[in-house]
Design a protein that fits this description.
Length: 70
């Protein structure tokens, strides 16, 4: 039995990953590229990261309101 493929939805321009962190529950995940070119995400709130099997790109540069870029 293989695990179901992990998929994330990512805003193409901003790199913001939709959905809450599996660990802390905050929606502050960013796209992460591993050294072997694998794709995944990193939580900017707690630092947790994980690999995914597939990325669905969303057009746009949306960011969560509390990323504090201002
Ligand atoms: Zn987190």
């Amino acid at each position: 039995m293989s695990a179901p493929a992990k998929t994330i939805q990512v805003y193409r321009i901003s790199g913001y990953v939709l959905g809450p962190c599996e660990k802390c529950g905050k929606e502050e995940r960013a796209l992460l590229m591993f050294e072997d070119y694998g794709m995944g995400w990193e939580c900017l709130a707690c630092g947790h990261s994980d690999r995914v099997d597939r990325v669905e790109w969303i057009e746009g540069d949306k960011l969560p309101p509390d990323w504090g870029l201002g």
